[in-house]
Amino acid sequence: MPCMCSSTACWTAGQPAPYLHLARTFDLVEREKGRIKTTAMLCNMFRSLLALTPDDVLPAVYLCTNKISPDHENIELNIGGSLVVTALEEALGTSRSKIHEMYKTYGDLGDVAQECRQNQMLLAPPRPLSIRDVFSALCKLSAISGSGSAGRRKILVLHLIRSCREMEMKFLVRTLVRNLRIGVMMKTLLPALAHAVVLDGKCSKDPVLSLEGMKSQLQELSTEVAEAYNVIPNLDLLIPYLLREGAAFSASSLPMVPGAPIPPMLARITNGLTQSLKLFHGRAFTCEYKYDGQRAQIHRLSDGSVHIFSRQMKESTSRFPDLVNMIKEQCSTVESSFILDAEVSGVHEELLFTLLERGGKHSSVAIRNIKVDICVFVFDIMFCNGQRLLDCPLRQRRKYIHDLFQEKPGHFELAQQLTVEAAQASVDNSDTLDSMNSFFKLACQSSCEGIMLKTLDVDAGYSASKRCDSWLKVKRDYVEGLGDSLDLVPIGAWYGNGRKAGWYSPFLMACYNPEYEEFQSVCRVMSGFSDEFYKEVKEFYSGDRILPKKPAYYKTDELPELWFSAEQVWEIRGADLTLSPVHHAAIGLVHPSRGISVRMPRYIRSLPDRNPEDCSTASDVASMFRAQTRKMEVSSSSDIQD
Ligand code: ATP
After folding, report:
1. Residues lining ligand 1, CB < 6 A?
2. Is the ipTM reported for this complex over the cut 0.95?
């Protein structure tokens, strides 16, 4: 048990780390804006955990990121703000109305709880909380279900709240309402941990390091850890492996495990076949149909079980009994574990979407009972029988697929393809362009969205989570205005006028810049919405989702009447892209001081499967802008796509 005094100095090796240690770090980090100092603070915290109780590193990382499990497990904490307020009322002796009143002033339930606790007379010091106490209580909260669950949850929350010391209250309450607000992202957290591992030095590559050597090892390990997390965003796998390997950790040796999804590789937008052929000049590549369905990552474990994950890495297995059976049939004679990338297409497209992306409690029994005819089009393999294939070139990965599977037309097919060898990969080769054009037409006639082009030998690995130059897409609707739509996040709005009075209109839309962790405005959108949608959005963006002020990480010169928290992603299509003095999208990427904006934007649909950080990035917007400029330059070019 941790020491009863309020100091963390009494914490000794082997004892559970006090939660106070984490809360104090959060408090320091919250006050600090600079990333270097924040990294150093987190690094110090991890160093002490590594020195005294390394088992607490994983729960500490989870608590820093406000998560309790890998995203794909879809585990929710299952407690609402109302339950937390009820527990606060009881534990702090402050009335609900007082809490609500204070909330209006502070805008944060953690701050309110902290203030109430400071004014409370305690008869005895609370029993200290440890990091693992808090983490395991959160895990228990997420597992409570069935009758009387609200009461059981309240008891657990009350116990946690009553045990809080110093600033623990503020951060515990924020954790419970899923809004830690210390601004720590993986981008800061993982380097901090990597630094701690290097400085801890237990598994150092070189025990006697010069200052320069130390600096380069800090940098090297941070890069490796970040890369490993991009490919396998699963802390349960990453952290223990990092702690075991120490400074010798390398991203490419982190074992892949079927059942743990990997972020899909994505394609770059191009404006036609000529442009793509120019980009792949002199390199062998394959053209594949770009099927119009939903992406499915298919995992077969060595015990024979099959798991399906959506593009957002959400488990969708239970929604696809037919697909699961199909894979099991395919493998009836072979004992193999694998991870496949595929597109699932079916007759009831809208339904398919619901099945794959919504998952969980939203899908009704009725949906489950409808029979959907599906066909799986397999186009990649990332893991096979214990072997990580990410670094194998696509030609080799394709061979694995061909060796492993038998096609069953209309049910289980390998993506239609046309191979262009390096010697033929040139715009001057009219035969190549002709056969690509015919292939493209066939794809469109087969109800595909267009085609994908992928390098086969050079730079042809599977780059998980990246939008790469080695995968290009040519879509048939690129001729209609913008070559591709943008997936943008509403970050603010104005109050509507006239027919739209009472609703929000227009909305301020933003793309994401992962480099600076900023949302950068792209345009105002006010067309393409139904009245029903306006009502839904009005209800959705209320309460906590309206921010008291513009967050520092929203970049725009626009001044909407309301700022929204970044929650939804909407697909937006427009006429073209222009440089803008007001919008900040991709600022500095194509022009030093101007951003890029979409002309005549209209709303197409919401993308419930996307996280805000997975919307179009600043560099996507810049690529589209450049592609469009090139398209204008070559508009007189001859082939049917260009
Ligand atoms: P889009 O909206 O164009 O589908 P995206 O952002 O979902 O874009 P991209 O990588 O840009 O993903 O485009 C490829 C998408 O096309 C994949 O996500 C996948 O769902 C689908 N697809 C269909 N056929 C293929 C194929 N043969 N190879 C790769 N992806 C394919």
Report:
1. 266-267, 288-291, 295, 311, 343, 379, 415, 452, 473
2. yes
